[in-house]
């Protein structure tokens, strides 16, 4: 997927005016925010589980090399093939090589954000392999040629009517209007693909080092089909997803669905280990696991390392006042919301993603709900700091900051300047004591009035009240 | 240098050589906080399973399973041709007027009858292990999934289920599937619809 994060402001403005999108986004509050709150309340010791989940993820990152090697050893022992990919292009090349070697004509996919990160579908199609997305949301996006707008609910931005129109047009069947009928139609259309596909591609929510297994959490059952029926299974995931034991996986599974959709557990949790035995009637003959770096290892040992704890639940975006209003597409890449505003700059470059670290009020809701305690506002602040240090901020902003620094280092001038500004703005505020426009701060006053200063500065008041 | 070596070298450099004995850490088997023990495992399991839209039937003995199944099939107006795991071939399906076959599923099969390795009270979940006589597709492809579970196989949590599996099997089967109710999707307008790609109905028959 191409990174298009530089247009954040324009796209955000369009989103705010898009009534359909606003009505779709309105569902976040009940379906995600309230559902999560209820699920968390139903857990005996949420704080303890969260603490342990954080510890598990952080401990793995401290010795990631050893855990990856342990995972590779166990997975290989069970007959899986482990591949390492430095970049997205490498990952795509590996999948295509596997497909060619196994004479694969059709791939059926389960939802995978890492494959979106790699734009794997485009690469496979360019190599002459047919790709069918089977997660309902991802299937809708494939038909509509659109990108996901949420990492858990990829078609959050679409209304039922849009899906009805799309299906009627693409399936050449009578237009359905009920959600259940639409799901049924997709099920019927997709079912034969599971049987005819030569390869199934999935992501991997966790890699379990102890057993060399890939753990998948899914609801629709398509993930199970894509990893059970085709003769080749390729799981593609990030190197940071490894956890030591099945017990650790149990702790994380206790907190991931609750944080994501408010479910106590997803419909299916599948732990897949190795290839099928000769006496088994189902399961893949080949199991390939692709471990993608793509900028992840560069985050280790830096102030941004904690971002690698992320388990992709989406709670940060569900609770973000910016995401709740502008939706995922404004962020311009696979990962939206606060976690995306940290990840996208690191994967795509700071200069290509300037608006993202600033697309946050730093209210802290994201850090509050994160099941693995990632201090997202701190990370966003760190990226803002880097933008500034690398002189990536706009000229006018840099100049004004330099001017402010100059002034702030000269207290007498600073006092005079602020006192003058305060008086002028007080005068401009008039009887209502509000300013509708402020030079240089149009972005702020476009949406609300600026309260006019009282006319006197703190220093002046302090001096006046000081007891001699 | 291979991609593997490059990535591992980068990680080692970043984490400044902190090493860990992975086997020793695994050996500790540290568990996170788990729910307080349930006074009644069965009651908790049934309550949670029903909340996930599974149907639960109780029977006193294994021999009564076909009767419970046919009652359910009738209530749902379903056909009486089912697929089953071989372990249930010995039951008296003929008297319940159900035809069963123990073979891998075909696209047109409507009912799949399986056992379960165990069940988990915390979440109302079934744990199924794949194998020669326990194919994973039987619980996945047919629209109706019937799972027969002995009451004494209900454990409290997923951690307890892993411990039981280690004790009885040693190694993991190719696929361990935790199943919590009928398949569902909420992709369109975040409205839950049952029967996405997997089964639309799950009947759990508790034996004992």
Structural features, described:
- The complex is a heterodimer of chains A (468) and B (208).
- Helix content of chain A is 50%, strand content 11%.
- Chain A has 22 helices and twelve strands.
- The N and C termini of chain A lie far apart (68 Å).
- In chain A, the strands form three sheets. In chain A, strands 1-10-7-4-2-3 form a six-stranded parallel β-sheet, with helices on both faces. In chain A, strands 8-5-6-9 form a four-stranded mixed β-sheet, with helices on both faces. A two-stranded antiparallel sheet of chain A has the order 11-12.
- With 468 residues, chain A is an alpha/beta fold.
- The radius of gyration of chain A is 26 Å and the shape is elongated.
- The longest helix of chain A has 19 residues, at 411-429.
- With 208 residues, chain B is an alpha/beta fold.
- Chain B has one domain (38-184, 193-207): 3-Layer(aba) Sandwich (Rossmann fold).
- Chain B is globular and about 70 Å long.
- The mean pLDDT of chain B is 95.
- Chains A and B meet through helix 4, helix 5, helix 9, helix 11 and helix 12 of A and helix 1, helix 2, helix 5, strand 9 and strand 10 of B.
Would you report the number of β strands of chain A? 12
Principal-axis shape of chain A equals: elongated
List low-pLDDT spans of chain B: none
Q: How do the strands line up in the largest sheet of chain B?
A: 1-12-7-4-2-3
| Helix content percent band of chain A | 40-55%
Descriptive tags:
heterodimer; A: 468 residues; alpha/beta; Rossmann fold; 3 domains; six-stranded parallel sheet; four-stranded mixed sheet; 22 helices; 50% helix; 11% strand; elongated; B: 208 residues; 5 helices; 12 strands; 25% helix
């Amino acid at each position: 997927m191409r990174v298009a994060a530089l247009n954040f402001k324009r796209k955000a403005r369009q989103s705010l005016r898009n009534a359909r999108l606003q009505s779709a986004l309105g569902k976040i509050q009940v379906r995600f925010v309230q559902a999560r709150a209820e699920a968390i309340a139903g857990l005996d010791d949420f704080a303890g589980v969260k603490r342990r989940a954080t510890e598990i993820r952080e401990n793995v990152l401290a010795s990631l090399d050893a855990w990856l090697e342990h995972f590779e050893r166990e997975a290989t022992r069970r007959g899986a093939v482990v591949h390492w990919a430095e970049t997205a292009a490498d990952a795509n090349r590996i999948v295509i090589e596997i497909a060619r070697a196994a004479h694969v004509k059709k791939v059926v996919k389960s939802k995978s954000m890492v494959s979106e990160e790699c734009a794997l579908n485009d690469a496979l199609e360019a190599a002459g392999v047919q790709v069918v997305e089977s997660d309902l949301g991802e299937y809708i996006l494939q038909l509509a040629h659109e990108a996901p707008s949420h990492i858990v609910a990829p078609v959050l931005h679409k209304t039922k009517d849009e899906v009805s129109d799309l299906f009627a047009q693409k399936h050449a069947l009578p237009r359905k209007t009920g959600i259940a009928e639409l799901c049924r139609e997709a099920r019927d259309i997709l079912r034969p693909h599971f049987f005819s596909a030569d390869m199934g591609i999935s992501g991997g929510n966790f890699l379990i080092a102890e057993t060399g297994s890939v753990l998948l959490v899914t609801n629709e059952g398509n993930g199970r089909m894509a990893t059970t029926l085709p003769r080749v299974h390729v799981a593609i995931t990030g190197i940071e997803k490894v956890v030591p034991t099945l017990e650790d996986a149990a702790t994380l599974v206790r907190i991931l669905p609750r944080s994501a959709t408010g479910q106590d557990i997803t419909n299916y949790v599948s732990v897949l280990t190795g290839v099928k035995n000769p006496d088994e009637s189902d399961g893949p003959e080949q199991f390939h696991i692709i471990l993608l770096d793509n900028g992840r290892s560069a985050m280790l040992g830096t102030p941004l390392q904690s971002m690698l704890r992320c388990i992709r639940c989406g709670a940060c975006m569900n609770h973000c006042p910016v995401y709740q209003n502008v939706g995922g597409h404004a962020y311009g890449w696979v990962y939206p919301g606060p976690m995306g505003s940290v990840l996208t700059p690191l994967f795509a470059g700071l200069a290509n993603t300037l608006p993202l670290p600033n697309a946050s009020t730093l209210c802290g809701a994201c850090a509050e709900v994160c099941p693995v305690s990632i201090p997202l506002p701190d990370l966003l602040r760190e990226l803002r700091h880097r933008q500034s240090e690398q002189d990536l901020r706009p000229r006018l902003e840099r100049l004004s900051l330099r001017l402010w620094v100059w002034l702030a280092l000269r207290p007498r001038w600073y006092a005079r300047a602020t006192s003058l500004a305060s008086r002028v703005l007080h005068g401009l505020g008039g009887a209502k004591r509000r300013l509708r426009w402020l030079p240089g701060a149009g972005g702020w006053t476009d949406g609300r009035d600026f309260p006019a200063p009282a006319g006197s500065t703190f220093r002046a008041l302090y001096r006046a009240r000081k007891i001699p | 240098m291979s991609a593997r070596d490059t990535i591992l070298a980068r990680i080692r450099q970043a984490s400044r050589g902190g090493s860990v004995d992975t086997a020793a850490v695994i050996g500790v088997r540290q568990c996170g906080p788990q729910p307080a023990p349930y006074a009644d495992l069965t009651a908790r399991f049934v309550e949670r399973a029903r909340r996930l839209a599974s149907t639960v039937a109780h029977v006193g003995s294994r021999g009564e399973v076909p009767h419970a199944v046919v009652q359910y099939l009738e209530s749902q107006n379903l056909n009486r041709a089912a697929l089953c795991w071989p372990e249930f071939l010995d039951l008296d399906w003929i008297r319940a007027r159900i035809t069963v076959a123990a073979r891998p599923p075909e696209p047109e099969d409507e009912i799949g009858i399986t056992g379960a390795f165990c069940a988990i009270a915390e979440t109302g979940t079934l744990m199924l292990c794949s194998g020669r006589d326990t194919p994973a597709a039987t619980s996945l492809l047919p629209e109706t999934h019937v799972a027969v579970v002995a009451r004494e196989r209900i454990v409290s949590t997923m951690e307890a289920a892993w411990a039981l599996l280690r004790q009885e099997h040693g190694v993991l089967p190719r696929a361990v599937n935790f199943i919590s109710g009928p398949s569902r999707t909420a992709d369109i307008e975040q409205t839950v619809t049952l029967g996405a790609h997997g089964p639309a109905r799950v009947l759990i028959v508790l034996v004992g």
